[in-house]
Write a structure and sequence with these properties.
about 800 residues, alpha/beta, 37-stranded parallel sheet, 21-stranded parallel sheet, 14 helices, about 35% strand, Right-handed parallel beta-helix repeat-containing protein, AAA+_ATPase, CbxX/CfxQ
């Protein structure tokens, strides 16, 4: 049939006219139209389920956008199965099990279509369909904004998802769309998500923001390429990669993220080029697991809003930074765990409040031609097996340039440290290290400071204008092994006597390695499900509850029967003492400071928070808030700073509870010249001077805390009682999982409770056992496995979305 024009008009008798024929519905007119025909639809609301099966043009009247509404009561309002043109329509759907606009075949053009719906998806593309979608908007608060499934593709230009009850744009089952200048916002799931092998997503000039989830999520062997895109204002991570995902970010901007800006794990690979990452609450880049890798070139990571390292590499992952800038962050680069590696080339690390580069737990870092400026510590190789190379780097404006402690053995070659406040290079506690052709200039302390008989190698090093001396090699003491101490060759100094051996030095101006167990136990950003910033800011004042209400919350906690009895007994004594005073009677003096002992994850922090609230409800404390600190928050890196830090922490806790986790780290067994004693002395004095202003709770493993109290009788005398937190049994761990399920609206399927009991019984209960944390991690792992399973279902039921089964249990730890 030759191309013709079909004019479709809405009449008072609801009849349709095509040339000389009359039709009872728009569907009938579509059935009668031939390829190439144009159907212009008059304004009105059409309660029909339309199917376009020919290459026609279906459009609303010019100059009246939104005047044609396709709004059936159920089913798919508009299905396209041909290379048709659809424009200027308003589509409404009400079927939660069906999409509002379904494209199944052909290469149609959809232009200026507005979809306002409560459907499974606003637009769904599947099979061999390759649509071109221009200037379309989707408002679907009940489901996915745009879904591209089962090999579907197409191009979306200048489209906008203004609301979505799930993901904004979801790609799975081998879908592979291209997005150009699109916007996704106000989604209740991820902004963009691609999952499954052969699924691919390409986005150019797009923006994702205001989403209640990750901005971009790529999982399960999917790939994605984002160019010139913005991701910001999410509630979860900015970008998440998991399970062999591959993502390329070029000229992108990720910012205003409360969690990790980018988090990847499980063999995922990320390539960043000319991308900026800023204003993130946790890590800028968080890289986990063997085989996981980040390659960043000409990128900038800066302006952290939290207390965590900008770049975190752990569990055997690899990160490469080439020509990058990291600045205005608490810590720049943390590499930890054997097999983890960071390679940094021609990059700048500056304005770092703590440590620019930290290497621990057997990890490796290699820095070539890098510049470190304005940091407390330039690089710190912390412990045995940790090492790497610093080659041709400059370190300027630090407290200490490079620290090597506790068996770490890096190679530092052709590096220069300018103007350190304490020392250029500092080695202690069995640290080793090889220093070749290194320079220290203008140190306010020593150039090279090697103590404890460390077997460090120095070759052709040079110091200039060092206030306390170019080289200080303190003895290891009478117990030092024969031949211990540095191996020095061809080293020079601008002092007239050349390399000199000064008198025994005063206390070292940086931390000694004996404290590193405590430090590493509280590295900022180290991941647990209970991760919090190192120094919790005092909580805003809340309406106070009665002690009865708070004790009710305590009683609702799983297990902890003996702890509950202890806290109740203490509370009763305080309450009766208060009433005796009101009656004019003498009241027994009750010491309110406590010692909490037990394994991690047994609820010590939670009980401390409730204890503070109870004391506030009884009028014993003014606020009752909790300030949680550890050794790294109290002990400074140079002389005099420890007392200041401890005083600041105490002041933040004024009117509430100061909770010191792993308190035994303040008094290590091999303390030597450790500054932890200064923190203890300061704390004891503050507790005496301000006994009514702050309640102090010290916590840690049972054996370690017993040693801590035995070697510090001044501290032990300040505490009224020790409360022991026992490990959770399998039944209690199961109850925690049940609580988590109820809270997150999941249900345990048949047989899962019994399987969980067996699972928790079989888990090793060694030092790594996390108690309640293990239960929560198990629940999170089940939810992840459930999501991977349910994501493959085309139309999941409510049971599918809520029931967890035994197959969702992770492998035993």
């Amino acid at each position: 049939m030759a191309q013709g024009t079909v004019q479709v008009t809405h009449t008072g008798t609801s009849r349709w006219r095509r040339r000389t024929g009359e039709y009872a519905s728009l569907a009938a007119a579509l059935e009668a139209a031939a390829d190439g025909d144009v159907l212009t639809v008059a304004p009105g609301t059409y309660r029909e389920n339309l199917v376009v099966q020919r290459a026609v043009t279906l459009r609303g009247p010019e100059g009246s956008p939104g005047s044609v509404r396709i709004a059936p009561v159920d089913g798919v309002p508009l299905t396209v199965r041909a290379s048709a043109v659809v424009q200027d329509l308003h589509v409404e759907g009400q079927d939660a099990a069906a999409p509002a606009l379904l494209v199944e075949e052909g290469a149609p053009e959809l232009t200026d279509v507005r979809i306002v719906t409560r459907s499974a998806a606003g637009i769904e593309v599947r099979g061999g369909a390759r649509p071109t979608v221009r200037r379309c908007t989707v408002d679907n608060p009940a489901g996915i904004g745009i879904a591209v499934l089962d090999g579907g593709g197409g191009v979306f230009e200048e489209c906008e998802v203004v609301a979505a009850g799930q993901a904004g744009i979801a790609v799975r089952g081998g879908g592979h769309p291209r997005l150009e200048r699109c916007r996704v916002h106000h989604a209740s799931g991820s902004g963009l998500t691609a999952t499954g092998e052969n699924s691919a997503l390409e986005a150019v000039g797009c923006e994702v923001y205001e989403v209640r989830g990750s901005g971009v999520q790529v999982t399960g062997r999917a790939t994605a390429h984002l160019t010139d895109c913005d991701v910001h204002r999410t509630t979860a991570d900015g970008v998440t990669l998991d399970t062999d995902a591959v993502l390329t970010l070029a000229d992108c901007r990720i910012h205003d993220i409360p969690e990790n800006a980018v988090d990847l794990r499980s063999r995922s690979v990320l390539t960043l080029t000319r991308t900026t990452v800023r204003q993130f609450g946790r890590n800028g880049l968080s890289v986990w697991d063997p085989g996981t890798r980040v390659d960043a070139n000409q990128c900038e990571i800066f302006d952290s809003t939290g207390d965590y390292p900008a770049v975190w590499v752990s569990d055997g992952a690899t990160a490469v930074l080439d020509s990058c800038r990291v600045h205005d962050v608490p810590d720049a680069l943390f590499v930890l765990d054997r097999g983890s590696r960071a390679d940094v080339v021609d990059s700048d690390l500056s304005q770092v409040r703590n440590t620019a580069v930290s290497v621990s737990d057997g990890a490796t870092a290699q820095l070539d031609d890098c510049r470190i400026r304005d940091a407390a510590t330039g690089a710190w190789f912390r412990d045995h097996g940790s090492g790497g190379t610093l080659n041709n780097c400059t370190v300027d404006g630090t407290q200490t340039g490079v620290i090597v402690t506790k068996g770490a053995d890096p190679t530092i070659e052709r590096c220069t440290v300018d103007s350190p406040a304490e020392a250029g290079f500092y080695v202690s506690a069995g640290g080793r290290g090889t220093f070749l052709n290194c320079r220290v200039r203008g140190s306010a302390g020593y150039g090279f400071h090697v103590i404890d008989g460390c077997r460090t190698t120095l070759r052709k090093c040079r110091t200039e204008r060092c206030a306390r001396g170019g080289y200080e090699f303190a003895d290891g003491g009478p117990d030092a092994a024969s031949g211990a101490g540095p191996d020095v060759e061809d080293c020079t100094s601008d002092e007239s006597a050349g390399l000199r051996q000064p008198l025994p030095a005063p206390e070292p101006a940086v931390q000694t390695a004996q404290q590193s167990p405590g430090l590493l136990g509280a590295i900022p950003g180290q991941r647990t499900t209970e991760q919090e910033p190192l120094i919790a800011a005092a909580e805003a004042e809340k309406p106070s509850r009665t002690s009865k209400a708070v004790l009710g919350e305590l009683d609702a906690l799983v297990g902890l029967d003996s702890v509950k009895r202890e806290v109740r007994a203490l509370t009763d004594m305080i309450e009766v003492g208060r009433r005796r005073q009101q009656a004019g009677l003498k009241a027994a003096s009750v010491k309110r400071h406590l010692v909490f002992t037990g394994s991690p994850g047994t609820g010590k922090t939670t009980v401390a928070r409730l204890y503070g609230e109870i004391l506030a409800s009884l009028g014993v404390l003014e606020k009752g808030h909790l300030v949680e600190v550890s050794r790294v928050d109290l002990v400074g890196e140079h002389i005099g700073s420890t007392a200041i830090r401890t005083q600041e922490a105490f002041d933040r806790a004024r009117g509430g509870v100061l909770f010191i986790d792993e308190a035994y780290a303040l008094s290590p067994e091999d303390s030597g010249r450790d500054f932890g004693k200064e923190a203890i002395d300061t704390l004891v004095k503050l507790m005496e001077d301000h006994r009514d202003a702050v309640v102090v709770i010290v916590a840690g493993y049972t054996a370690e805390m017993e040693r801590f109290l035995s070697v510090n009788p001044g501290v032990a005398s300040r505490f009224s009682r020790t409360i022991t937190f026992s490990d959770y049994g399998p039944e209690e761990l199961l109850r925690i999982v049940e609580q988590q399920s109820e809270e997150h609206e999941y249900r345990l399927g048949p047989g899962l409770s019994e399987a969980l009991l067996k699972y928790f019984t079989a888990i090793p209960k060694g030092p790594a056992f996390g108690n309640g944390r293990t239960a929560r991690q198990t629940f999170e792992a089940m939810v992840e496995r459930h999501a991977s399973r349910v994501a493959q279902l085309e139309e999941p039921s409510t049971d599918d979305l809520t029931l967890l089964y035994t197959e969702d249990l992770p492998e035993p730890m």
